[in-house]
Structure to design on (414 residues):
């Protein structure tokens, strides 16, 4: 089946082909016909599988210009809101639609102005509710409501906000849920708020035959040294390094920079403009290594990731799957490297119990240069090179070390 069989308008088809999209993905092939018929849909599909175009087809061909807000897309993160907005704008270049992204962390007054003219709103739940309570969001004409990355919104505690938003929309509407996993609470939402939904499931975009998973078993104080050694010697395209907390992310990225690894960071503690800038630098290849928390594991469009490093393993096996799903896509090879110290083995065992078909092989630990971990976060105070352990002058910043080969995993509290 191809896009010409989906009942799409010719201008939308033209835009899709101009973007170089020629064959529908599995989730698009299964869901677009039902969406174009006006059916409610629950779609189980991984990040990066093409679901934005799937629900975007319904939005673009069904929303009418200058008739108020008619479509709402809820996303769990600001970055995903911006990416969905950008994708919808690309798909709808033939049509005069104002698509606006609404999220927290930025000034609200420009958003209020945009909402008076918008036909499509892409929003995070918290800021959307804020506008509802202020009376600056008119949902009376909404005919299509999308929950994108619904499972992530549930995990982040947005379930009550989502319920309130759904209840603020007209009862007579089309509702689409897209999620990497369909949990019990998502099914409860669908039973309450959807009408006879079509349920589709698309296989993961990751090709298991092209994904290699390995792990190193090391002491905690060797972990940073090993990470730096591997990054300096492993050839690849874009690399993502996952940590469990913001503080560990900062700790790792500062030490990578100190050792001449071209790395940037992203986590929920960054201001919105800084998060977007980091993503742009990484996507454009201006920084080869992205150190991040799970905020970057799901819902963000990042291509050409060849290596995933788990500096720390997540406690939830599902989060591990979302992390490794960033690589081995579209026929490309991918590699997952897990750095395990004694603190990680409980999480590792939990992942292997949950996903017994994973083949994660133990690799012998190479001899690595000793790295002295830097705690100071001020870039100008970092002296580069693995062996630079300079003394502190009378007026210099304090730099803390943790003994020889001290690559401690960084602070563990959130």
């Amino acid at each position: 089946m191809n896009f010409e069989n989906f009942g799409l308008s010719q201008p939308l088809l033209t835009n899709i082909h101009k973007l170089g999209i020629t064959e529908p993905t599995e989730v698009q092939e299964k869901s677009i016909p039902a969406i174009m018929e006006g059916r409610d849909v629950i779609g189980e599909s991984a990040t990066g599988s093409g679901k934005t175009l799937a629900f975007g087809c319904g939005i673009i061909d069904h929303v009418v210009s200058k008739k108020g807000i008619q479509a709402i897309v809820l996303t769990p993160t600001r970055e995903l809101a911006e990416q969905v907005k950008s994708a919808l704008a690309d798909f709808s270049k033939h049509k005069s639609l104002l698509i606006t992204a609404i999220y927290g962390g930025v000034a609200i007054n420009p958003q209020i102005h945009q909402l008076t003219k918008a036909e499509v709103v892409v929003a995070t739940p918290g800021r959307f509710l804020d506008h509802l309570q202020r009376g600056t969001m008119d949902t009376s004409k909404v005919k299509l409501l999308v929950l994108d990355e619904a499972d992530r919104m549930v995990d982040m505690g947005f379930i009550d906000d989502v319920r309130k938003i759904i209840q603020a929309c007209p009862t007579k509407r089309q509702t689409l849920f897209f999620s990497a996993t369909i949990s019990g609470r998502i099914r409860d939402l669908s039973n309450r708020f959807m009408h006879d939904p079509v349920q589709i499931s698309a296989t993961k975009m990751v090709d298991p035959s092209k994904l290699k998973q390995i792990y190193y078993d090391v002491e905690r104080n060797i972990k940073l040294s090993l990470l730096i050694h591997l990054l300096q010697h492993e050839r690849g395209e874009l690399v993502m390094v996952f940590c469990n907390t913001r503080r560990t992310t900062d700790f790792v990225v500062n030490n990578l920079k100190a050792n001449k690894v071209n790395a940037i960071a992203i986590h929920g503690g960054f201001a919105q403009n800084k998060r977007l800038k980091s993503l742009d630098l990484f996507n454009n290849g201006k920084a080869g290594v992205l150190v991040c928390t799970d905020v970057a594991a799901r819902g963000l469009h990042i291509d050409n990731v060849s290596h995933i490093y788990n500096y720390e393993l997540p406690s939830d096996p599902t989060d591990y799957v979302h992390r490794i799903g960033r690589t081995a896509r579209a026929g490309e090879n991918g590699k997952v490297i897990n750095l395990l110290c004694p603190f990680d083995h409980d999480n590792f065992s939990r992942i292997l119990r949950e996903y017994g078909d994973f083949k994660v092989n133990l690799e012998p630990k190479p001899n690595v240069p000793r790295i002295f971990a830097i705690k100071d976060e001020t870039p100008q105070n970092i002296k580069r090179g693995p062996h630079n352990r300079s003394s502190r002058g009378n007026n210099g910043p304090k730099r803390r070390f943790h003994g020889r080969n001290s690559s401690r995993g960084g602070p563990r509290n959130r």
